[in-house]
Write a structure and sequence with these properties.
Elements: E1 2-6, H1 10-21, E2 25-30, H2 38-41, E3 45-46, H3 59-67, E4 74-75, H4 81-94, H5 97-125, E5 131-132, E6 136-140, H6 142-158, E7 164-166, H7 169-175, E8 185-189, E9 193-195, H8 198-211, E10 215-218, E11 221-226, E12 231-235, E13 238-242, E14 244-247, H9 253-257, E15 267-277, E16 286-289, E17 294-299, E18 302-311, H10 321-333, E19 343-351, E20 358-362, E21 365-372, H11 378-394, H12 408-411
């Protein structure tokens, strides 16, 4: 079988490795090359405990204040408000209690698969030396903030996620010294894993895929054309046919699916960060400031401070003030932090309204498989997604029920 995977981010390269290991003739095509997008500068976390979708019951009562605050954890540029309105309507529907519970269940299933698949990937591609198994602290300002988080923690506990509750600043300091004492409560997740550098990790997986026989090319794909058998990609040099085409182009995926008539509610969580030089702070573990929407993580280059969600599409200019807001907060929350010498970055995280990725056959187009929309969990869910897509290419049933991730949940059509 000849398969073209569009996209050389973490989803695309991991899928290439999984498929090539099974004997599939894989060609990966990306307009810029490996790890050129969101896989380049993210926080580098495998956040398997993050099973709670963004659309939680009651969020639309709180969201307007966030949307209107350019410094808040969830914002919308005013010029993008009308464009994002249909997405927000679906987001509101996804926050209904029944849909929320279904999303948590689906997210937990994909996390379980992805955690197990990651360990298989690490062994098969010899990647252990690129990991940090240092755990994570999620910290809260006072008991009231912690109590507000308890329903979500109960969902995590029910999903089998192991964590410890800390209710004293002294207990927090035993794991991570230097956090301001205003943070009195925390959740410690000891099994949390980080990569030493997300771009290096993506390149390493791509190299493993090459070793398994995958071929990588750089080209701008202008369209996908369904065929009676398979599908074709159209580039500036012409048309090339494959038995299957996998769309794993992240935030640009919907622009490609529109070329064969499929529109899906994909938008972008524009994420911002600042990477500080080594020595800026003695970080022992990944720290999440949950109520402020950002994290602090160790990477090869030093310390990375970033996160937040800006629903702003692909075309607006970056608002790097978002990165500076998080850096300013980090300076206050970590009093010993040296904020000088940082490098700012912005990436496009592909986001669906229900926080679940799209994984499955394109409706009515049997030659095309979709694998995108993972939001800020692309790295986390990459190995599980790759195994699911490889199963689909084999004509086998995936290890988990694929229905919750099917594109037909938005179209109402039946997948081919």
């Amino acid at each position: 079988m000849r398969v073209c995977i569009i996209g050389a981010g973490i989803i695309g390269v991991t899928t290439a490795f999984a498929a090539a290991r099974r004997g599939v003739a894989v060609t990966v095509v990306d307009r810029k090359g490996v790890a050129a997008g969101a896989s380049f500068g993210n926080a580098g976390a495998f956040a398997f405990s993050d099973v709670i979708p963004l659309a939680t019951p009651g969020i639309m009562r709180r969201a307007p204040a966030w949307f209107l605050d350019p410094k808040g954890p969830l914002s919308i540029p005013p010029s993008y408000a009308l464009r994002i309105a249909p997405w927000l309507w679906r987001f509101w529907r996804a926050s209904r209690p029944d849909r929320y519970r279904a999303a948590v269940s689906a997210q937990a299933a994909l996390m379980d698969l992805s955690g197990a698949a990651l360990e298989r990937l690490i062994a098969e591609a010899s990647l252990e030396d690129r990991l940090r198994r240092e755990g994570q602290l999620q910290v809260y300002e006072g008991e009231r903030a912690f109590r507000a988080a308890e329903p979500g923690l109960a969902e995590r506990r029910a999903a089998g996620i192991r964590f410890d509750v800390l209710d004293r600043p002294e207990a927090i300091a035993e794991i991570q010294p230097g956090i301001a004492p205003r943070f009195t409560h925390a959740v410690h997740t000891p099994d949390w894993i980080n990569v030493s550098d997300p771009a290096d990790w993506t390149h390493a997986v791509a190299e493993a895929a090459r070793g398994a026989g995958a071929v990588f090319e750089t080209a701008e794909i202008r369209a996908i054309r369904p065929k009676e058998e398979g599908a074709a990609i159209v580039t500036e040099t012409g048309e090339r046919s494959f038995d299957r085409v996998v769309v794993a182009a992240g935030a640009w995926s919907e622009r490609l699916t529109r070329t064969f008539g499929l529109s899906l509610p994909l938008d972008t969580e524009r994420g911002y960060n600042t990477t500080l030089p080594a020595g800026a702070f003695d970080l022992k573990t990944h720290v999440t400031f949950a109520d402020h929407g950002f994290v602090v993580s160790r990477v090869k280059q030093g310390l990375r401070i970033g996160g937040a969600v800006e629903l702003g599409g692909l075309d607006l200019a970056p608002r790097m003030s978002r990165a500076r807001v998080m850096l300013d907060k980090a300076t206050r929350f970590l009093p010993g932090l040296d904020p000088s010498g940082g490098t700012e970055w912005m990436g496009f995280r592909p986001s669906m309204p229900d926080s679940l990725p799209v994984i499955g056959n394109a409706p009515g187009v049997p030659g095309v498989i979709l694998a995108f929309g993972h939001g800020h969990l692309g790295l986390t869910q990459s190995a599980g997604t790759a195994e699911m897509v490889a199963d689909m290419l084999d004509g086998a049933a995936p290890a988990i029920d694929p229905a919750p991730y099917a594109p037909t949940r938005f179209t109402g059509a039946r997948a081919a």
